[in-house]
UniProtKB/TrEMBL annotation:
Keywords: SH3 domain. Belongs to the MAGUK family. It comes from Neogobius melanostomus (round goby). This is Membrane protein, palmitoylated 3b (MAGUK p55 subfamily member 3). Residues 144-310 form the Guanylate kinase-like domain. The lineage of its organism: Eukaryota, Metazoa, Chordata, Craniata, Vertebrata. Residues 5-75 form the SH3 domain.
Length: 310
């Protein structure tokens, strides 16, 4: 019944290029889309190919997209093929299954990047196919939304967040997180964090924003800003909060790379290694969490980023 109304919207969590898809019945009839695109499904009658339009697309004709079940099967099939290829490569070496498991774990560990040390991977076992969404139509009496900021290496989102709030404290509010890490000299208790101790642990610090503190800001009719490690998106992306997720990504210009070694880039204190780490961190973030992002803010400098964020 729902489908007859044709009010089914899906957010694509993977990229689809009909021209690369050998399974498509007709490449011209396929609808190419990117991760994060919103698709309006017109028909789900066929179990393998659904008909859909891309929201915001000027082309009004529906085209074919793989059904969720079909895409899931394709992903599974690719995994099985990959396993067979791996097994064929490992058997001649007579590796035990334990070392095979270790090889996979090692592969995962290698994805960790400098600066992302404490950011775990996105859940690798999830099938990222489609997510059903509804259109967000703000009513005049609607409470302001939660804004979740995530950033890659060098984005300095905490600073941005503080500035937005300082410029307009009537409109924006802060959900002050708790942390077990030591207070830095310029930080104040209750402003950047509530600094708490963690008994019994030694090195690793914990961070956490209570949902209650987010509720409090929203109840005061303010836009609530939080900056968190991206794995927190799993908790914050709820129907209740309907957060708007902004990924702040430092912009790296080709000219910056060329300038490396010249006095101007050295003056900024940025080395070629720093640029590479920033680039890798941004790509990693995009790969693991890009599908949850509503807006990418390419940060050139603090001033323009602040204006854009506001
Ligand atoms: P810093 O120690 O430099 O202030 O922050 C380190 C990281 O912790 C930042 O990337 C920040 O986004 C993240 N962070 C701060 N508060 C929270 C929180 O409440 N939850 C999560 N998941 N991450 C947080």
């Amino acid at each position: 019944d729902r489908l007859r109304e044709s009010r089914v919207y899906l957010r694509a969590l993977f990229e689809y290029t009909p021209y690369d898809d050998k399974a498509t019945p007709c490449q011209e009839a396929g609808l190419p889309f990117k991760r994060g695109d919103i698709l309006q499904v017109v028909s789900q009658e066929d179990a393998t190919w659904w008909q859909a339009k891309k929201v915001g697309d000027s082309n009004l004709r529906a085209a074919l997209i793989p059904s969720a079940q079909f895409q899931e099967r394709s992903v599974l099939l690719s995994l099985i093929i990959l396993c067979i290829v791996c097994l064929q490569a490992f058997f001649p070496l007579s590796l035990s299954t334990a070392s095979l498991r270790r090889s996979f774990r090692l592969k995962k560990d290698r994805q960790a990047l400098p600066g992302d040390g404490h950011a775990p991977e996105a859940d690798q076992t999830d099938f990222l196919i489609y997510e059903e969404v509804t259109q967000y139509l703000p009513r005049p009496d609607e409470k302001p939304r939660l804004i979740v900021l995530i950033g890659s290496l060098g984005a300095r989102i905490s600073e941005l967040k503080q500035k937005v709030i300082a410029e307009n404290p009537r409109r924006y509010g802060l959900a002050v997180p708790h942390t077990t890490r030591a207070r830095r000299s310029q930080e104040r208790e209750g402003v950047e964090y509530h600094f708490i101790s963690k008994n019994g642990e030694y090195k690793d610090n914990l961070y956490g924003t209570s949902l209650e503190s987010i509720h409090r800001v929203l109840a005061h009719n303010k836009v609530c800003l939080v900056d968190v490690q991206p794995e927190a998106l799993k908790t914050l992306r709820t129907a209740e909060f309907q957060p708007y997720v902004i990924f702040v990504r430092p912009r790296i210009f080709d000219s910056q790379r060329k300038l490396f070694g010249s006095s101007s880039s050295l003056a900024a204190g940025i080395t070629e290694d720093d640029l590479m780490d920033m680039q890798q961190s941004a790509e990693h973030m995009d790969e693991c969490y890009g599908h949850w992002v509503d807006y990418v803010l390419l940060k050139e400098d603090s001033v323009s980023a602040l204006i854009e964020l506001q």
